[in-house]
Amino acid sequence: MMQCIIIEDQPPAQRVLKKYISDIGNLQLKGTFADAILAMEYLKTEHIDLIFLDIHLPKISGIEFLNVLKQKPSVILTTAFSDYALESYEYGVVDYLLKPFSFKRFVQAVHKVPTKENFLMDGTVQNDNVLPDVIFVKSGYEHVKI
Q1: What is the CATH number of the domain that holds 47?
Q2: For the segment 66-108, what is each residue's pLDDT rounded down to a tens digit?
Q3: What angle do CA 112, 138, 95 make, to 5 degrees?
Q4: Domain coverage including residue 36
Q5: Which of 35, 70, 118, 140 has the greatest count of CB atoms below 10 A from its CB?
């Protein structure tokens, strides 16, 4: 199970991310932070595999956060601004989700995150394009795991 955190200052966006994370079986939300400074303090003592990171944050931006972060877990940027898409890949982000994004697009981004299970002995990532064991089907406002 991947341990993740959300760094997002807007409560509606936090709610969407929390819902999407809870709908996926292999993610465990360890915390939600309204600014990157609080998240940095948390990351000093806790191991996290994945960060959902907004760019426009109070105090320091998501890009500035990526600049100062020493040990980087996998990062998926979640932002309403497309301006930083190219620059973000210079920081090794896994994906760039442009708000508002669908659950399907969220799942696609999460499946790009390297996990311990798909690392080979030589440090490369195994990507067999194998179909997932589970899929999600939208039923009304819910996503049903099949």
Answers
A1: 3.40.50.2300
A2: 999 888 899 999 999 888 888 888 888 999 999 999 999 999 9
A3: 20
A4: 2-145
A5: 35
